[in-house]
Amino acid sequence: MNGETKTLHQLDDEARILLTPILERKARGESLTARDRIAIPAQEMPAQAPEIRNKNVAEVALGYGENQARLEAERCLGCKNQPCVKGCPVQVPIPRFIAEIQKGDFKAAVDVIKETNLLPAVCGRVCPQEKQCQAECTLGKSLKNIEKAVAIGRLERYVADWERANGKVTTPAVKGRTGKKVAVIGSGPAGLTVAADTAREGHEVSIFEAFHKSGGVMIYGIPEFRLPKSIVQAEVETLKKMGVRLATNFLVGRTRTVRELLDEDGYDAVFIGAGAGLPKFLGCPGENLVGVVSANEYLTRANLMKAYDPAQAATPMYRSRIAAVIGGGNVAMDAARMALRLGAEQVHVIYRRTREEMPARAEEVEHALEEGIVFNFLRNPTRFLGDDQGRVISMELLKYELGESDASGRRSPVAVPGSQYTFDCDTVIVALGNESNPLLTRTTANLSADKRGRIIVDETQKTSLSRVYAGGDIVLGAATVILAMGEGRRAAQAINALLK
Questions:
Q1: CB 3.0-4.6 Å disulfide test: which of 65, 372, 391, 488 passes with 290?
Q2: Spatial contact of 416 and 281, defined as CB atoms under 8 Å apart
Q3: Per-residue pLDDT of the chain (500 residues; tens, 9 = 90+)
Q4: Domain boundaries, given as residue ranges, for the chain
């Protein structure tokens, strides 16, 4: 946050002062013009102060107050062509739900969202809105600043939190039983979406989760300070109320195969949403040293097994003094910020491009900088060095400069010959993304996958096998929650059509 850190009460009170004359005008039957709406200031997100939050795992962003939410909603221009909806992977009717907030009807607003998205409290927190719905916002474009777009995600979070806090959560209606059975492999965002959309049609749905807790990457990957686990569990409970059965510690490919689910257990369709759980490494010398770990393992221990709470933790955690995180995506930001909360004296992010090319959300990078994390740009390891006990003590870094743009549109890093130097550290967290776990493709005959192990699907998310669909990270590679949900919605539509 720029300047003085303000409390939620202060920010909400400032919003009340600005909102009052707007509500008075509306009470008199006067309409706000586009010029009026453009003049309303964008609402700042209240957050814990950096010097406090970097020592705890409580949620950093505190959410809007009611006045802030209503004032931010008044900024929406209500565009007839709805460009924001086109930018949403699950096609949330954004202007409609914001219009309900403008009326002060928060329950109606969240009900509109849930027509296409059963995880609004999750998506409002972790989706990269600045690259999706908010990137298309007419207001942001007219102001020539995407940061001034209507804060769609924050409004989504507000109404979802309001519904839960006020005991207004309702279970979506379920049609009469069809007698058809759907198996969902994985309880991440794609799997939960398929389960919800097929259960709504009256099919009997079972989710099979390999871990002992449901929620997939939302539980083991995203830290508590970004997404409280109680919120994910509340969404899962809604599915259970819809009649969805959840089996944990059930590893499809070992406990049962896909073919056994279809041929022996009587499932009429199977959806594979097992995620991308196979971490990538650099392949350079020294990666087998003690203290060099994947971000996948690091975050799973911290999040799923609560390593941040030693008295309650179900797993030991490697203690760090100087931690280095390799990578520039959201997972790298999560790992770096978690390392700080786990007691590291210094945390460095090593990234071979510059800040402008980082794929991580701008808000996450800004939060990391505020918390004291150091960024080392245009650097990449060439080897890791250890002591006589096999523990990492430093790494050799090579300097880079930016060359021409690559296929992704980002400028490619070019090594600077002879620029190596030694960087001291006792923990290295490799956050270079994940590939698909090969278990399902190896145990399912004729299930087509590409050379990276990602399952190949058509435009309906159907795989090479009859009655078998797939989506999320096992198809996309490591992607976002909302993109996984978008694939889940397409798959559910196809499954419902198949079983009709």
A1: 391
A2: no
A3: 444 678 899 999 999 999 999 999 999 999 999 999 999 999 999 999 999 999 999 999 999 999 999 999 999 999 999 999 999 999 999 999 999 999 999 999 999 999 999 899 999 999 989 999 999 999 999 999 999 999 999 999 999 999 999 999 999 899 999 999 999 999 999 999 999 999 999 999 999 999 999 999 999 999 999 999 999 999 899 999 999 999 999 999 999 999 999 999 999 999 999 998 889 999 999 999 999 999 999 999 998 888 878 777 777 787 899 999 999 999 999 999 999 999 999 999 999 999 999 999 888 999 999 999 999 999 999 999 999 999 999 999 999 999 998 887 888 999 999 999 999 999 999 999 888 888 999 999 999 999 988 999 999 999 999 999 999 999 998 788 999 999 999 999 999 999 99
A4: 8-165, 181-277+435-499, 281-432
**How far from the centroid of its chain's Cα atoms is residue 478's Cα?**
10
Which letter does DSSP use for residue 1 in this model? -
User: Phi and psi at residue 451, in whole multiples of 5°?
Assistant: -65, -15
For 281-432, CATH number? 3.50.50.60
The CATH fold of domain 8-165: Fumarate Reductase Iron-sulfur Protein; Chain B, domain 2 (1.10.1060)
In which element (H, E) is residue 258 found?
helix 258-263
Name residue 37's amino acid: R
- For 131-172, give the DSSP string: GTTGGG-HHHHHTT-GGGS--HHHHHHHHHHHHHHTT---PP
